[in-house]
Amino acid sequence: MPGKLYILPNLLDEELDPAPFLPISVNAAVAKLDGLIAESEKMGRRYLRKFISHDEMAKCPLRVLNEHTSDINELIIPMEKGECWGLISDAGLACIADPGADLVWLAHQKKISVETFVGPSSLIMALQLSGLSGQQFSFHGYLPRDAADLEKKIKELERQPGAKIWIEAPYRSAKMLDQLLKTLQPSTKLCVAVNLTMATQRVVSQTVAHWKGKSFPLGKEPAVFLIQ
After folding, report:
1. Which of 32, 35, 118, 220 could be 170's S-S partner, Cβ–Cβ 3.0 to 4.6 Å?
2. To the nearest 10°, the Cα dihedral for 167, 37, 47, 100?
3. 67 and 127 share a domain?
4. What is the rounded distance in angstroms from the CA atom of residue 205 to the CA atom of residue 189?
5. Domain total for the chain?
């Protein structure tokens, strides 16, 4: 009988206590695991350490799934043999702006049961906190790095209806905000949500005209950007 793939939620900040953010059902699921798939072995071990003992961790093999993984078929083999494996992202929900979707698709093709759990998603939390449209929204991953291509993409998104959401590498967050303020129309709504769920969380949602009169220091911090 085929096994199971658990899509497990992770914290947005690994230093936080899981209890306020992850459901108790995650503890039970982790205890059942025959193995864990993570973006790196280091992050996989840190995740397991929050739920099980060192001895139990030693019995739970880790496999890596990230942008460098060339063949996911090997990852599915233990589940085809009846084992139960977990899939995590470094932060938040796996398969959302992270590797994992192809593995889940393959699991469905192999008739392997897939189960997910509620947990923190910076994208959905940012949308809730923004005041932008929750009826019509789209996610755009990472925008182009080239300055000309980025400006073109921002203008393209600005013309589209609904809320548009994307993320950026923390070390590029400040540059992204600068480019948005240079490119967007004064009446466009812009929200920047930084360090969600952390003690340093900040969310500002204003028109671009109001943004240009504000001071918003943005260091190398994880941020979600939204416009409408």
Report:
1. 220
2. 20
3. no
4. 7
5. 2
- Strands (E) in 21-157, as ranges, are 35-38, 62-64, 84-87, 113-116, 137-142
Cα distance between residue 28 and residue 24, in whole Å: 7
User: Model's pTM, two decimal places?
Assistant: 0.91
Same domain, 134 and 40: no
Domain final position from 116, 140, 170: 116
Using a pLDDT cut of 70, give the percent of the chain over it.
100
Average pLDDT over every residue of 70-94: 95
Local confidence band at 129 (pLDDT 50, 70, 90 cut-offs): very high
Judgement on whether residues 110 and 127 belong to the same structural domain of the protein: no
Q: What are phi and psi of 204, to 5 degrees?
A: -125, 130
The Cα diameter of the chain in Å comes to 62
Does residue 213 have a pLDDT over 90? no
Residues 8 and 107 in one domain: yes
Mean pLDDT within 29-52:
95
- Whether 34 and 11 map to the same domain: the answer is yes
How many other CB atoms are there within 10 angstroms of residue 82's CB atom? Answer: 12
Domain, as residue range, for 82? 4-116
